[in-house]
Amino acid sequence: MEKQIIKFEHNYYKLRVKNPMAFSIIPAKDFKTINWSGGTSTQLYIYPETAKYELRDFDFRLSTAKVEVEQSDFTSLPGVSRKIMVLDGQIEISHKNLYNKILHELDVDAFEGDWQTSSIGLCTDFNLMTKGKTKGELSSLSILQGQTTDYPIPSMHTMIFIYLYTGEIGLDIEQNDLILNQGELLILDNLNTNNLNLTAYKDSQLIISEVSL
């Protein structure tokens, strides 16, 4: 079977293959950015896709945010577990009566949405929110231009999301060669492989969310 070369340049594109594994790439232009008191927030994905963040009826949500004021208070989100990763900049995050923590680039903090949380400093960050029995992990992967690496697929997770913060990545999925461009989100569901082969066409920074429902 010959490989298909697929480059996603249009709106949300979804391909289901026989086995049945599905993958999608959401281009950056399809993301919705809103203003909040401390800067801007961009929703990358929400599940189920019919859920509304304002109604808090999601199982999980992925987003980025720009913190543009020196001191900001986090929205109270009872029943939501949160993980935050700094993409650039630095903040000191404070959970009242619990702990303070300085987050440098690619550092992660995990906390509950009903904690009284604030931060000092300016940054761009990545957010993973989960509710109920849904669990999620957040990590990063750096690949230099010209390098190829295998990303091991954890079998316990049903969905994997790769957000390409910077760079350009080529990857092979079920005999399909894909290109992931800067700012795009790759969604992988029900993979039938233990490894994902990744090649960097430019120096690349990947943010990886692993979610089990």
Notes on the structure:
This is HutD family protein. It holds the Pfam family HutD. It comes from Ancylomarina salipaludis. The structure is a single chain. By secondary structure, this protein is an all-beta fold. It folds into 2 domains: 4-29 and 136-212, Jelly Rolls, CATH 2.60.120; 32-132, Jelly Rolls, CATH 2.60.120. Helices cover 0% and strands 63% of the residues. Strands 1, 2, 3, 14, 15, 16, 17, 18 and 19 form a 9-stranded mixed β-sheet that branches. Strands 4-5-6-13-8-11 form a 6-stranded antiparallel β-sheet, with no helix packed on it. Mean pLDDT is 89; it is low at 1-20.
Number of helices: 0
CATH homologous group name of the largest domain: Jelly Rolls
- CATH C-level name of the largest domain: Mainly Beta
Rg on CA atoms, Å: 17 Å
Helix content: under 10%
Sheet of most strands:
9 strands, mixed
Q: What percent strand?
A: over 45%
Report the average pLDDT across residues.
89
Overall structural domain count: 2
Low-confidence stretches: 1-20
CATH topology (fold) name of the largest domain: Jelly Rolls
Helix and strand sequence: EEEEEEEEEEEEEEEEEEE
How many strands in all?
19
* CATH architecture heading of the largest domain: Sandwich
Content-based structural category: mainly beta
In angstroms, what separates the terminal alpha carbons?
Answer: 33 Å
Q: What is the molecular shape?
A: globular
Organism: Ancylomarina salipaludis
Protein name: HutD family protein
InterPro entries: RmlC-like_jellyroll, RmlC_Cupin_sf, Uncharacterised_HutD/Ves
Pfam family, one: HutD
Which helices and strands, and how do they pair?
Layout: E1 4-7, E2 13-16, E3 22-26, E4 32-36, E5 39-47, E6 60-67, E7 71-73, E8 80-89, E9 91-95, E10 99-103, E11 108-112, E12 117-120, E13 123-131, E14 135-143, E15 148-152, E16 159-173, E17 176-181, E18 185-189, E19 195-212
Parallel strand pairs: 1-17
Antiparallel strand pairs: 2-3, 3-18, 4-5, 5-6, 6-13, 7-12, 8-11, 8-13, 9-10, 9-12, 14-19, 15-19, 16-17, 16-18, 16-19
